Amino acid sequence: MKQKKEQTRWLLEHVSDASEKWKIAVEPFPFRVGRDEDCNLSLQSKWVSRHHAEIQTSGGLLWIRDLGSTNGTFVNRKLMQESELLEPGDIISYGRSDFCLKRVDSIRPTSAEATSSFDSIEELVHMASLESRLRKLLRERNAIPYFQPILRFPDLHVIGYEILGRIGDDDLPSDPVELFDVAACMGCASDLSALFRERGVDFGRRLPGYPLLFANTDPVELGRLDVLLESLERIHEIAPSNRIVLEISEKAAPHVDEMKQFRDRLADLDIALAFDDFGVGQTRLVELAKTPPDFLKFDISLIHHIHLAPKRLHQMVLTFVKAANDIGIKTLAEGIECHDEGETCRQLGFAYAQGYFYGRPSPIGEFAVT
User: Fold this and answer.
1) pLDDT, position 5
2) Which pLDDT tens digit goes with each residue over 125-166?
3) pLDDT in the model for residue 195
4) In angstroms, rounded to a whole number, what is the distance separating the alpha carbons of residues 258 and 245?
5) Is the pTM of this model over 0.85?
6) d(CA 100, CA 13)
7) CA 298 to CA 350: how far, in whole Å?
8) C-alpha to C-alpha distance for 195 and 188, rounded to whole angstroms
9) If we measure between CA atoms, which residue out of 274, 330, 278, 321 comes closest to residue 301?
10) Are 253 and 217 within 8 A, CB to CB?
């Protein structure tokens, strides 16, 4: 039984001419509009510049910025300045072409024909082969830890590394997301997550200066906290001199009562806690105040192109950062890819930074080891 995932799509509906109503999906991001053929939406009009404007997404919010067009971009008939947040129903005008922004939530199908499919014999054989390879990998603990530096603002001193797992088996998906999808289908995602975490800490303890080691969890592990704690006890024994920071998704975090008990167990092991993916989905500020993590990692979707984002988005991020700082949570901006993104994050008050601009995930051989 396979079921389509619910997803939200944004559409631009052409409304300049009632006889020519057509729609275009706003994807992928950044969604560029202009006269040039390489644009996602190409408008052949002398009033439209070659690269006129682009639509971006940050933390589930949609925003638009003008690309220095000759005749400007209008939102709800007003000439926009630099960039603006968008809402469903907004009228966006490029030259003499008007578009209405619409959000379409796909409906989860309910009929048996829409939700059921059967795997072919070839697919079943392929999945059996993948399962055999994956279980062999788990049994032989054949994981390759990678490390991405985490730096402190403003001096950009490296204070720790996030552990990211990789494998060397060409017969299994090399992309971690795909690999965990396969593991989830076979009921061993928690085993794979524990393997990456434990191997990463074992290698990471060789990094000079006993840096912080940020270790990830899979959301399925949060359903069996007793099993997760057994893995955490093992990594505490592996690297007693390193401070481990356990990353869990803010969206999958246990509720207040269970979280308090979990925090107490982590404290016994001298393991800190970080909420990952903050700023997307349901942001529970009240619960954050009741059981604050040690670190709050702001999702990459909020940080990407943040230097170009509307000031209203800056104000929203600034509010979250200040609220976290006020209750003693260390804030970290992840996914920084250029100097301007990093500088904007520094100005917004983030304490720490992570991203390709400061260092890509690399095997331990790329770093000095003891």
Assistant:
1) 41
2) 566 788 889 999 999 999 999 999 999 999 999 999 999 999
3) 97
4) 19
5) no
6) 5
7) 9
8) 11
9) 278
10) no
Q: Which residue has the tokens 């402190």?
A: 152
Residue 185 tokens, joined:
């289908």
Q: Which pLDDT belongs to residue 18?
A: 63
pLDDT tens for residues 257-289? 788 889 999 999 999 999 998 875 555 566 677
Tell me the two tokens of residue 292: 């604050």
Calculate the CA dihedral of residues 33, 39, 40, 46 and round it to 10 degrees: 50
What number of CA atoms fall less than 13 Å from residue 359's CA on the CB side? 20
Is the Cβ–Cβ distance between 15 and 91 less than 8 Å? yes
Name residue, tokens 């954050």: 288
Share of the chain above pLDDT 90, in %: 59
Q: What are the pLDDT digits (tens) for 193-202?
A: 999 999 999 9
Per the structure block, which two tokens stand in for 304? 């990407």
274 neighbors 293 (Cβ within 8 angstroms): yes
Asked if 370 and 207 touch (Cβ cutoff 8 Å), the reply is yes
Q: Of how many residues is the chain composed?
A: 370
Distance of CA 294 to the CA centre of its chain: 19
Question: Helix 189-204 to helix 121-140 angle, to the nearest 10 degrees?
Answer: 30
CA angle, corner 343, sides to 338 and 346, nearest 5?
Answer: 130
Please give the pLDDT value at position 4: 40
Distance CA 290, CA 267 (A): 16
pLDDT digits (tens, 9 = 90+) for 310-346: 998 999 999 999 999 999 999 999 999 999 999 999 9
Radius of gyration of the chain (CA): 24
Helix (H) or strand (E) holding 105: strand 97-105
Query: How many C-beta atoms lie closer than 10 Å to residue 296's C-beta?
Result: 27
Rounded distance, CA 119 to CA 202, Å? 40
Q: Which residues pair with 11 in a beta bridge?
A: 25, 102
Instruction: Give Cβ neighbours of residue 343 (< 8 Å, ≥ 6 apart).
Output: 307
DSSP structural state of residue 201: H
The rounded distance, in Å, linking the Cα atoms of 135 and 227 is: 19
CA distances from 111 to 5, 10, 120, 256 (A): 15, 25, 21, 38
Which of 335, 246, 307 is closest to 65 using CA atoms? 307
